[in-house]
Amino acid sequence: MSRLPQWVGGLGAGLTRFAQRLDERKAQTSGTAAASGEARVPTPAGAGDSSDAHGSSGSAVSSGRAEPATGQAPVGVAVSEHEHVPPPPGYAPSVAPRPDPVAAVPWGVRVAAEVAWRLLILAASLWVLMRMISAVQLVVLAFVAALLITALLQPTVALLRRHGVPRGLATAMTFISGFVVMGLVCWFVVWQVTENLDDLTENVQHGITELKHWLLNSPFHVTEDQINNIADNLSKAIGTNTKDITSAGIEGVTVILEVLTGILLAMFSTLFLLYDGPKIWGWLLKLFPAAARDGVAGAGPRAWATLTAYVRGTVIVALIDAIFIGIGLFFLDVPMAVPLAVFIFLFAFIPLVGAVVSGALAVVVALVTRDMFTATMVLAVVLAVQQIEGHVLQPFILGRAVRVHPLAVVLSVAAGSLIAGIGGAVVAVPLVAVTNAVVGYLRAYARENALRTAAGESSPEVPGQAVPAGSAGPPGEGRG
């Protein structure tokens, strides 16, 4: 019993020394372990005896031993897992970072996508523009017709101005004379048709009878019953579709009113374009950005020169076609030769299609009023004149002022007729020709401007104002 207090006292002393050692080690790892060559704190006296006695401190660090200079914890000292994270082992698999999504898309797909959304925007803009034009189709066609008439009459105004006639008087004289001539031509056509309508009806009936006899005696083996059945079917179709014909007649009255309204709009637009053309052109230039104004100012005279050359050349070519085909119809004794010649002149303003339609009309009239031989001769005359026109007259008269590929002519006429009917077919080719001239000039202007910038020169204020001799400037401008 005498040893129990002594044993309890030794256990308490050992726990006290163990707590002191823990405090010393914690202080060493937090503050004094970084000091190179710093000596460790000596172990308190009696620690070795107590360790030998109780066997619990055999792994204690020897007193007076110096700490390593690397700043690491001494060997045998336990380090908390929150104070040191070991590096990953070398055999751990490496995870590659995910690539950029843009870099993962192939180059061709990216280019196609960039082109596609731009094309979609252009298509949407074009669709909106077409919808706007269709909503005001009458106004647009009237203004375009006024531009074409102005391009035809403006050289006369310029000629009168050069001879000292005031602008107002020159404009009035040209405007009145031009529309009087066009009105007389239209009146002459209507008068000739109404005067020869009875004779034409009799000739058509006679031609149908002759065609019936020819079919009966032809090698096609057509019987009289088949011809009568065709006539009966036609009469029945006309009888059953009386309501449609009546509605078409009512729509025809509406069309006539729209045509009269368009003619009035075209007349007023032509008058103001002839008189105030330069002011209108200057106002239009102010609508463009300042950076693009110089190029547009140079492209305007080129566009007007192209339009004027097209209208002049088309009028001359149409007049030659009408005169020569009309002479051929007169000598072949075809009824209404003069009205047919006027129709050929008017249809010549529709490229390619107009010549075919007017020539076919002349051939049909010759067939139903005369005979097959006369129709064949009319066809020969029409083809001969059109070949001379296509290979001699147009290249010589139009020259290189209007350079439009035949494929572009066909496609533009078809698109114009689908969008706006006959009026669209008339204005399609001059619109394409003007667009071609403007785009070509702007491309050349951009190239020359880039060369001037590279050479350190300053671009002129309004480039491209010098128009070749004989060409016309913007509407109403005093150019020859």
Automatic annotation (TrEMBL):
Regions of compositional bias (Low complexity) in chain numbering: 45-66
Keyword Ubl conjugation: no
Main location: membrane
Disordered: annotated span: 22-74, 455-480
Bilayer topology annotation: Multi-pass membrane protein
GO cellular component: a single term: plasma membrane
Subcellular location(s) of the protein: Cell membrane
Entry's transmembrane regions: 172-193, 255-275, 309-332, 338-368, 375-397, 409-442
Keyword annotations: Cell membrane, Membrane, Transmembrane, Transmembrane helix, Transport
PANTHER family given in the database record: PERMEASE PERM-RELATED, TRANSMEMBRANE PROTEIN
Family: Belongs to the autoinducer-2 exporter (AI-2E) (TC 2.A.86) family.
Protein name as annotated: Putative PurR-regulated permease PerM
Native source species: Streptomyces netropsis (Streptoverticillium netropsis)
Organism lineage: Bacteria, Bacillati, Actinomycetota, Actinomycetes, Kitasatosporales
